[in-house]
Amino acid sequence: MIAIRVVGIACLAALAILVTQLAADVRSWSSSIAAGDATYAASPARASWTPSTSLDGLAGDLLGVHDDLALRRALQLFNAASQLHLRLDNAVEVESARAAAEGALAAVARQRDPRRASQAETVLGIMAFAGGTGTSASASAFGEAIRVDPSNDEAKFDLELLLRMTAPHGRRSGSGQGGPKPRSRQGADGETRGRGY
Question: Would you say 195 and 184 are in contact if contact means Cβ atoms under 8 Å apart?
Fold first, then answer.
């Protein structure tokens, strides 16, 4: 009977220690994400969201922060890639940075959370346009962002801007009310012969 009590007390003590460590890890995750976001706002390349924890990733799993972190790191890679300017001597570096950002964003775009997936698609659309891969790829990404999350106003704005930028300019002769009027044909004597209609 005494042995059972001792074992019970030991189990309760171990559980109390576990709960205390878990609570500390949860606080560490919270402060780490807040600090990482503050650093990102000032200097994206220096931002880190990895806390010091006692129980490895248990608190992170319970909090469900991994998808949020994936988006933050993908945006960090995008920012790093966008800072690179293509030159003759850094083509491989630029291409590698772009590929890393696109891969990370594509992974986030496959997440079940519509807000994060839509944000990732929006950034992929920006990358497609900036990278010169064609407006159709960019428009497709913006369209997918809107489909996944219809409340994504940034994607709507970007798609509308893209469509306006790529719309044909000018007017075709004779089209619409604003087009030039058909000229009446005149003979050698200057009299109108008719409009031909």
Answer: yes
Rounded Cα distance between 38 and 105, Å, is: 21
- Report the candidate in 63, 74, 69 with the shortest Cα–Cα distance to residue 97: 74
- CATH no. for residue 149? 1.25.40
Structure token pair of residue 58: 């248990």
Enter the tokens of residue 189: 């004597």
d(CA 167, CA 159): 12
DSSP state of 126: H
How many independent structural domains does the chain possess?
2
Q: CA distances (Å), 133 to each of 125, 128, 130, 136, in order?
A: 10, 5, 8, 8
Domain that holds residue 75: 69-166
Q: Alpha-carbon distance 31 to 28, whole Å? A: 5
Rounded-to-integer distance, Cα 130 and Cα 109, Å: 19
Is residue 158 domain-resident?
yes
**Considering the domain boundaries, does residue 173 fall inside one?**
no
Cβ partners under 8 Å of residue 154, min gap 6: 122
Least confident interval from 7-16, 39-48, 71-80: 7-16
Whether residues 133 and 161 share a domain: the answer is yes
The yes-or-no verdict on residue 182 having pLDDT over 60 is: no
